[in-house]
Design a protein that fits this description.
CATH architecture of the largest domain: 3-Layer(aba) Sandwich
Radius of gyration: 17 Å
Largest sheet: 6 strands, mixed
Oligomer: single chain
CATH superfamily of the largest domain: P-loop containing nucleotide triphosphate hydrolases
Number of domains: 2
Strand order of the largest sheet: 6-7-8-3-9-10
CATH topology of the largest domain: Rossmann fold
Helix content: 25-40%
CATH class of the largest domain: Alpha Beta
Number of strands: 10
Strand content: 25-35%
């Protein structure tokens, strides 16, 4: 299978502290995989390296055909068009309704109104929130807000979806619903990498689990 994300001997240092040490792993095209480990183990840093918010100090990283360790600043936007990101802290615009929150990425790219409508409604349908397109974030539950964030991340049809503790603020039932949404998105061919310390998310899933501890890769297993 084609590798969508590949790390080869990647090290990332912050001042005197090593955040990641000689990390090697890959995620295949169309795969849904997990990164796990306690707080401070390097999960968020690893995701930041994928979307070029950070650069590695050593090693090579390839994402969607881009070699990110040597990438020029001018090429970073082209890489990021392939990547959707789901943050733990939602980052929804309170003064915009659900439709507008999801449409933002397409507006920035100058997509026509007609195509934008189709794609926003398709994304909201995927996360079962088509009926909430006129609602404002404040009126939504935590789980609904997180699903809006997923819709926003997939509306531009990324090849890779990254999620950082996407269920961190949600109760178990709501978290299970969000995970079902990720499975639906993955079933359409999107490669997904989810960082979480919550073992319940990947237990009995049969999916690849990459385990970090204090910046070291300490194992890889099937959930």
């Amino acid at each position: 299978m084609d590798e969508m994300i590949s790390f080869q001997d990647v090290t990332k240092d912050y001042d005197t502290q090593t955040a990641l040490r000689n990390i090697t792993f890959s995620v295949d095209k169309g795969e849904m995989a997990f990164i796990t480990g306690p707080s401070g183990s390097g999960k968020t840093t690893l995701l930041k390296l994928i979307y070029c918010a950070e650069k590695p100090d050593k090693g090579t990283i390839s994402v969607a055909g881009f070699e990110t360790a040597a990438i020029k600043e001018s090429t970073v936007p082209a890489l990021r068009r392939h990547i959707g990101i789901v943050f733990q802290d939602f980052r929804l615009l309170e003064n915009k309704n659900v439709f507008e929150n999801v449409a933002i990425a397409l507006r920035i790219r100058g997509v026509s109104e007609r195509e934008m409508k189709t794609r926003v409604y398709d994304s909201l349908k995927t996360v079962t929130l088509r009926h909430k397109s006129d609602a404002y974030p404040k009126s939504l539950s935590g789980g609904e807000q997180q699903r809006v964030v997923i819709a926003r991340a997939i509306v531009a049809e990324p090849t890779v979806l990254l999620a950082d503790e996407p269920t961190g603020n949600l109760d178990p039932d709501t978290a299970a619903g969000v995970m079902r949404t990720f499975k639906d998105v993955n079933a359409k061919g999107t490669t997904i990498l989810i960082a979480t310390h919550n073992r319940d998310l990947f237990r009995h899933t049969g999916r690849k689990v990459i385990k970090l501890d204090s910046g070291n890769l300490v194992g890889e297993e099937l959930g």
